Amino acid sequence: MNVQEKINSFKEALSVFGVNENTLTEQEKKDLDEKGFVVFENLIDEKWLKELQEKYNDLVEIEGAEAGTEVHQEAGTRRLSNLMNKGEVFDGCYTHPKVLASIYHIIKRDFKVSAMNGRDAVKGHGLQALHEDWNDSFFEEGVMEKDGDYRNPDDPFNVAISLWMLDDFKEDNGATRVVPGTHLKKAPQFYLKDRMADHPEQVLVTGKAGTVAVMNSHLWHGGTNNLTGESRRVLHPYYVAREFKQQQDQRQYITKETYDRISPAARYLLDVEGAF
């Protein structure tokens, strides 16, 4: 198929990026179904990894106090946002076939890119409350249930995320913690009084630089403290079922330069067709 042709369906877009029924192994699918996450080692080759590391550092330096403001800033971390508009080097992150196949396996219907952010906790910081990435604002500390939308265990999954490790994720430098299987439950606010505390069943998602993890975003998860001060840069291409709003309105932020550079299939994933 000519990638310059207009994309008319979600399945067409996935096909352009090489996603098919054999993109994931049966074990990878099982991990997503049962644990709620899967880890792909060495998904980023050495050259690309170096380019991503350098671009990340350049953006942090250039943007300074404004870094991350398009979506979110967080005390004790270096945050970046709107990365799909900040360099060709990021194009392959939100379009990688292994990632897209995993996201589709989780959400099981048409989806779109919600945002692509970066995060790097500095020494002594990075601990987050266990949470899911779905309407977390409907909950408050100490409140077990509040009016508003939240996902029930029998509802479809709406969000999923990938973690592109630009540095080694270690047990002591702020690796992400997850509680396997909790994507099959309600949000942690319904069960836990102290979401900052260690959970008896939590595990740390560790890996060498170049590793990519894909996670059901309804899985209970959160960052941990960076005890060593070693760099722990990560990119977060984040996806949402196509009927919902994006975390970052891609049509509002898309630049003409980006729009002209990327393929119609990528425009479809960003939901920006016809923006120019």
How does this structure look, described?
This protein is α+β, with helices and mostly antiparallel strands and 276 residues long. The chain has one domain: Jelly Rolls (Sandwich), CATH 2.60.120. It has seven helices and nine strands. The strands form two sheets. A six-stranded antiparallel β-sheet has the order 1-7-4-9-3-2. α1 (10-16) crosses α7. The longest helix is centred in the N-terminal third of the chain and has 18 residues, at 46-63. Residues 137-148 have low confidence and may be disordered.
Strand/helix succession: HHEHEHEEEEEEEHHH
> Would you tell me the overall average pLDDT?
92
Radius of gyration: 18 Å
CATH topology: Jelly Rolls
Give the percentage of residues in beta strands.
Answer: 15-25%
What would you give as the CATH superfamily? q2cbj1_9rhob like domain
| CATH class placement | Mainly Beta
Helix content: 10-25%
Globular, elongated, flat, extended or rod-shaped: what is the shape? Answer: globular
Count of DSSP strands = 9
Stretches where pLDDT falls below 50 for ≥5 residues?
137-148
Largest sheet properties: 6 strands, antiparallel
Architecture, according to CATH? Sandwich
**Widest sheet: strand order?**
1-7-4-9-3-2
Number of helices: 7
Please report the distance between the alpha carbons of the first and last residues: 23 Å
Q: How many distinct domains?
A: 1
What structural class do the secondary elements suggest? Answer: alpha+beta
